[in-house]
Amino acid sequence: MKTYKIKLSDGSSTVVKAPSEKQARAEMDHRFASISVMGINPPAIVEVSLDEESN
Q1: Burial level of 7, CB count in 10 A (0-12/13-18/19+)?
Q2: pTM, full prediction
Q3: Could you read off the pLDDT of 1-54 as tens digits, one per residue?
């Protein structure tokens, strides 16, 4: 598992552990789908980068 840092359109960032960048994006999409169901518009993913410090 690698650690990916994901920057969001609202200016925040989060860290996701996943085997690949594609899986990291999929994890965030899944989280956002849960938020969207509650009627909240989630932020967009701006950038996904490998977190060199954690790997």
Answers
A1: middle
A2: 0.83
A3: 999 999 999 999 999 999 999 999 999 999 999 888 888 899 999 999 999 887
- How far from the centroid of its chain's Cα atoms is residue 50's Cα? 11
* DSSP letter for each residue of 1-47: -EEEEEEETTS-EEEEEESSHHHHHHHHHHHHHHHHHTT--PPPEEE
Q: What's the CA gap between 55 and 50, in Å, rounded?
A: 8
Q: Give the CA diameter of the chain.
A: 35
